[in-house]
Transport permease protein
Amino acid sequence: MIAAQHIPPPNALTRIAVLVERERKTRFSGGKLGYLWAYITPVVWIGLIVALFWFLQRTPPIHVRAEIFIATGILPYLIFRQTVTALSRTLTANRYMRYLRPVSNSDIMSATMLLEAFNMLTTAVLIFGAITVLFGSALPTSMPGVLFGLTLAWGIGCGVGRFVAAAGLLSDAFARAVPLILRPLFWLSGIFYTATDLSQELQNLLWYSPFLHITELVRQSYFLGYTSPIASVWYPIAVGAFFFLASVPLEIFATRRRIMRGRL
């Protein structure tokens, strides 16, 4: 009787809501400080890079404080990375939930995506708000534009993360290699520079990095007077949609293969 109470109800929305709450409690367990780690990590990253700027006596290429310049660069990257990392682990962490019908892989991954969306919004409000209050930085020129840029980072993270999760059903080694694959993207995201600082050759080359587009979109919306020479909305959307759509047949194939091998 007790076990039956934990089985998610058949309604899809309610089922995913239950899975979101379960994901939140299990991932951030460990006392009252547990959930705060979702917000401590980006603060530490921003603090370390700002300290590096001070140590090297560097100034942002835009006439703004280093704290807000770094925050507008690193938050999109961290949102993408955290979403991919969470999705790459979620099917393994919740593998026993798949034995409870009608819970599916899509339900589990959707719950993880929604939890990361909540974390994204909360982290952005806390960090941008704290920098504005503590350092007197100006408010964003276009708040909807900033939120849209961060949502693009989350959207690509959902697409790539779902693809990685599906591929992980076929190969554990692939899932474990993802952090190594993501590492170079840190340098291609425009955290330390803007597109206007790059030569035309580098602009043409880095145009293929969707993360540079997202960072430029966020900064274009945040800083008055800054206009990016390369920012495109449709390219990041196309990249995220490609990985998301490619993950669907891959997940179906991987699930059928595991069923045939008796490994569901």
Notes: Residues 80 and 123 are 13 Å apart (CA to CA).
